[in-house]
Amino acid sequence: DIHPDYHPVVFKDTSTGDSFLIQSTATSKATVEWEDGNTYPLVAVEISSKSHPYYTGKMKFVDSAGRVEKFQKKYNWDKRKGAEEANKKEEE
Question: How far apart, in whole angstroms, are the C-alpha atoms of residue 42 and residue 69?
Fold first, then answer.
């Protein structure tokens, strides 16, 4: 059979805690018992339709991995420095 295994999987939005049981080819070693009493593979996602601004209509910043801070530290970026540089460009 050339097709991947298509089976029920629970996706959990880590930012809201909401879970969805849908069909998918995704796999995971983690499992969870669903409302129907069956056990399904559990895939954690950072953003879903329950937390994405496009679907919620709310601008909510989710930074579970600290990506902004990692970027600022990696490139020695200071918020004040960035604001000063932006102001200089506007004045020119």
Answer: 29
